[in-house]
Design goal:
UDP-galactose 4-epimerase, domain 1; 10 helices; NAD(P)-bd_dom_sf; about 40% helix; Rossmann fold; Epimerase_deHydtase; NAD; alpha/beta; globular
């Protein structure tokens, strides 16, 4: 019997990569999203363009008992989208509605296990004020005080999927993603995250010129390459541990250091022009002690190795766009 999988959010960055990975494992895969993948054709056996906020669409999509369901669909983006406050109502309404629909339909179809992608944005802001010593251990989640409404919605939806475990005997799995990046991710338009935005700025900049950086650049983060993310997702989904657990790198860098790494990859000497802009918390880093204890695994690829592949891809997109505009 061929195993079946459903990837909600299969047109997005992580979802399209996950579809490809599941196909390599021999799964029959259905993807669903508001749009097809932006950079290349989907590899899903069946791909439905549909709005998971609508219950009738969910009923059409979740029409059988899939072996594995991955709920990645959400209204999301980088700091320029999440932290301005202008999109809070949409973010909370859209993502919560999707999760309510998927959790309920999976239960009614007797699907035992759904993987849910939460985010490190649900961690308390008060534990992330020191850029050199952030606390993002899974146990630090409460008392809750996320730094954004996006984080509050993620926290609610974690509790939703785990409540279905307790009340209905489901075996849902919850992971908290820390800044996933890689080729074929959003790199312009306002929803891109820091690695993609910086790769784009460096690709566009001339040697010995300057690029703009939001804030003083001393805020810290960790960034996880897409292949490592998928490995963590599959290991957690197929494990006996429900989570929540961090899926992220613990190689913490400042945004200034991130710029320096990308500039070195590009072979450019660049100056940083620090300007006002949304920054989020001052420090964030994945604490990987629990995932190593429970799954016997933790991400190991270096940030530089992932950025080399990502920069090469984004530089090609930038060149292609320029040639089309010329």
């Amino acid at each position: 019997m061929v195993k079946t999988a459903l990837v909600c959010g299969g047109g997005g960055f992580i979802g399209s990569h996950l579809v490809r990975r599941l196909k390599r494992e021999g799964f029959w895969v259905r993807g669903v999203d508001l749009k097809f993948p932006e950079y290349g054709d989907t590899e899903a056996d069946d791909f439905v363009v549909g709005d998971l906020r609508r219950q009738e669409v969910c009923e059409r999509i979740i029409d059988r008992r899939f072996d594995e369901v991955y709920q990645l669909a959400a209204d999301m983006g980088g700091a320029g989208y999440i932290f301005t406050g202008e999109h809070d109502a949409d973010i909370m309404h859209n993502s919560a509605t999707i999760n309510l629909n998927v959790a309920d339909l999976a239960h009614k179809r007797n699907i035992r296990r759904v993987f849910y992608s939460s985010s490190a944005c649900m961690y308390p802001a008060y534990n992330q004020e020191d850029p050199d010593n952030p606390n993002c251990a899974e146990s630090s989640a409460y008392p809750a005080a996320p730094d954004s409404e996006y984080g509050w919605e993620k926290l609610f939806s974690e509790r939703l999927f785990l409540a279905y475990n307790r009340n209905f005997g489901m075996e849902n799995r919850v992971a908290r993603f820390h800044n996933i990046f890689g080729p074929q991710g959003t790199w312009d338009g306002g929803k891109e995250k820091a690695p993609a935005a910086i790769c784009r700025k460096v690709a566009l900049a001339k040697d010995n010129s300057e690029i703009e950086i939001w804030g003083d650049g001393l805020q810290t983060r960790s960034f996880l390459y897409i292949d490592e993310c998928l490995e963590g997702v599959l290991r957690l989904t197929r494990s006996d541990f429900e989570g929540p657990v961090n899926i992220g790198s613990d190689e913490m860098v400042s945004i200034n250091q991130l710029v320096d790494i990308v500039a070195a990859i590009a072979g450019k000497k660049l100056h940083k022009n620090h300007i006002p802009g949304p920054q989020g918390v001052r420090g964030r880093n994945s604490d990987n002690r629990l995932i190593e204890e429970k799954l016997g695994w933790r991400p190991s690829q270096t940030l530089t190795a992932g950025l080399e592949q990502t920069y090469e891809w984004i530089e090609r997109q930038v060149r292609s766009n320029h040639s089309k505009a010329a």
